[in-house]
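=== RUN LOG ===
request id: a7f3
mode: sequence -> structure
chains: 1
length: 374
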Amino acid sequence: MTQQDPIHRLPAEPGSAAFAIESATDDIRIHRAQPLITPWVLAEELPLTRAQAGTIATARRSIEAILSGTDPRLLAIVGPCSVHDPVALLDFAAQLQAACEPLSDSILPVLRVYFEKPRTVMGWKGLINDPDLDGSFRINRGLHQARKVLLDVATLGLPAASEFLDTTFGQYYAELVSFGAIGARTVESQIHRELASGLSMPVGFKNGTNGNVDVAIDAIRSASHSHWFPSLTKEGTPAILHSTGNPHCYLILRGGSDSGPNYQPAAVQAAAIALRKQALPASLIVDCSHGNSDKDPQRQALVLSSLCEQLEQGQRAIRGVMLESHLVGGRQALAPPQELVYGQSVTDACLSLEETIPLLQQLAVAVRRSSPPG
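=== RESULT ===
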C-alpha cells in the first residue's frame, strides 16, 4: 500500500483492524444520522398543478419586467421575518392580497415566505429545520410544510419570495418561488452565487452586513455567468450541475453595521451609479427593515416615506421595497405553539398588517405620481 492509497476501499467489518481505524477517524463528531426525503418523493406527495405553475410563471415574468423597468409598477415584498405558523401566514396572505387589489395598477405584492433564519451564533433556525419549535429538528416534516405553504400561496394567486440559505433545500420547492433572495451573511459565498446562477426566478442579493454594496454587485456579476457546482438531483442523487447563468439578478439595499442606513437619496444614487459602472441595470430593491430601520419596525414607515419622496422626484432606480409585517405587530419569545400569540413574529419584530396597509397605499400614490402620463 502506498501513502496515496486509502486505508480501506470497502466498509470495514466490525471487529477488524480496519474498523478500529475507521472508528477512530470517521464521523467522530456526528451523533446520529436520519434519512432525508428526496425532492422527487416530496413533489409526488405535494404536486404542482398546471394552474399553480401558470401563476408562478406569470409572476416571475412580471417581476422581471418591473425590475428591468419595462413595467412601471413597483415590487412590494411584504410578510413576516420568517414563517413559524403556516395557518397565520396564509391568513396574512389573504388579507394582504385583498388590501392590494385596488393598488394593482401601481404595485405588485409578493408575499415574503422565508423558511430559514440565519443565525450569528444560535437560535431557532426556521420552519424547515425545526417545524415544531421545540428543538426536535424534524426536517422532513419541515420540508413538507414548506412546500405545502408555497402551494397554498400559489393557489391564492400571490407570488412568493424566499431566501435560499441552505444550498440543497431549494431542490424541494424552488419551482414554487417567484423571487429568490441571497442574504447579507451569504452574499460573499461562492456556492450561493453559483446556486443563484442556476435558479429559475429573479434573485436579489443583499449588501453585506457591514453595508458593503460592492460584494453584492460582484455577486450579481458572478451569478450571471455559467457555473459547475455540486448539488442534488430531484431524485436525491449527488450530482454536479451546470448552470447557464441568471440574467435577472438585482441589488437589495438593507443598510449595514458600519455604513448605517442606505435608503437615503445619496446612497440610492451612489448604488445606481456603482451598478452602471459594471454595465448592470440601475435597478434597486430597498429593504425598509434590518440595517435601514435599525431593527425598529416602526422606523420602516420613515424609510418608506423617504423612498416615496425619491420616486416622486424622479428616482427611477428604485424598483422595489421590502417590508417586514405580520398580523400582529412586534415580536414574541419562542414558546410552545399553543402558548404563542397568533400572527406575531417569533424572530425579528414586524409592523402589524393594519399599520402596513396605509404604507402600501402611500407607495401606490407615489408610483402613480412618478409615472409619466399614459
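=== NOTES ===
The first strand starts at residue 74 and ends at 79.
The CA atoms of residues 217 and 317 lie 15 Å apart.
=== END ===
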